[in-house]
Amino acid sequence: RAKRPAGAPDKKLARRIGKVGVVGAGLMASQFALLFLRRLQVPVVITDIDQARVDKGLDYIRGEIATLLGKGRISQDESNRLNALLTGTTDRSLFADCDWVIEAVFEELGVKQQVFGEIERIVSPEAILATNTSSLSVEQIGAGLEHPERLVGFHFFNPVAVMPLIEVVKTPFTNDETLATAMATAAKLKKNAVITRDTPGFVVNRILAKVLGEAMHAVDTGTPFSVVDDAVKPFGLPMTPFVLLELVGLKVGAHVLDTHHSAFPERFFRSESLHELADLGRIYERDGKGGIKGVDKQALAIV
Ligand code: 3HC
Predict the structure, then answer these.
(1) Which of 129, 132, 115 is nearest to 177 (CA)?
(2) Which ligand 1 atom lies nearest to the CA of residue 252?
(3) Which of 17, 85, 165, 208 has the most crowded CB, counting CB atoms within 10 A?
(4) pTM for the complete prediction?
(5) Fold category of 11-197 in CATH
(6) Class for the domain spanning 204-302
(7) Prediction ipTM score
(8) Boundaries of each 3-hydroxyacyl-CoA dehydrogenase NAD binding domain copy (predicted)?
(9) Which residues in the chain are classed under CATH 1.10.1040.50?
(10) What is the DSSP string of 256-277?
(11) Is 147 a catalytic residue?
(12) From the centroid of its chain, how far is CA 57?
């Protein structure tokens, strides 16, 4: 018999998910919206604050469906079905009959609290609410909820299609039905799930913040980007610190470091220059074939 993951409640408590709502149509949200579509084969509604963002998310998802078809991973029938199950809108009232609504909006506590406050008024009292926050407190995100017992952290990793883990974050309020549904959903998405405490960075980002923070600190104190990355390469990490920072997004990276520094000022660095780099959006110049040409001149000028 398969072992029940540590802290997981009885699987029988899991609720059926017949429709999924996704708040935010950015890259992370679009990546997991596709995963929900593909693995659950249920209607998925993506939303954002304006139609241009929604359309960008829809284009990404449709493009990935076309790629899967091109690679022979899905049939023409499945491709048609997935496209038909996908809706994009700015109108959150379409969440009314969703059983699971997950958000990946801007990493700011007030924004997430407001989003969930609005969503709770739209969805049924049984619907489960999930947040993909990287390092905010899930309990605080749900502070204004009438039913905080239905809120759970459901933290994906970049690139969602490939990374095998989901951190399921339990708050003191999360009830067993919610937790069981989150675990069952992760299994349907074919991901490994671990249940983590609601503590800054959960498990993975807490460790990553150490590595990325030290890497930025080395740069901030005079070691060039490429020297840090080249020095780390032989240790067998799939990506060096700054390539990874570019993958997760420099804004998200800067935010993760800030959250850790605020919680544990003696243990974690924050980096002002990472914030400035985030406005630039990149560290390395690319050669157009996925290779690195060199450190971006503006990035060099910032630190
Ligand atoms: N989207 C979809 N599929 C992708 C992808 C993407 N962005 N990137 C890679 N893939 C797929 C490729 O299509 C390929 O699939 P195929 O074999 O079916 O064609 C497969 O992944 C392997 O791709 P590559 O040959 O390019 O693989 P690499 O060996 O270079 O590995 C990698 C790519 C898996 C991204 C690897 O470099 C890696 O594991 N990097 C570390 C990523 C990581 O640590 N992520 C966690 C970041 S932290 C985070 O997200 C949390 C947040 O809160 C900050």
Answers:
(1) 129
(2) 54
(3) 208
(4) 0.95
(5) Rossmann fold (3.40.50)
(6) mainly alpha
(7) 0.96
(8) 19-198
(9) 204-302
(10) HHHHHHHH-TTT----HHHHHH
(11) no
(12) 14
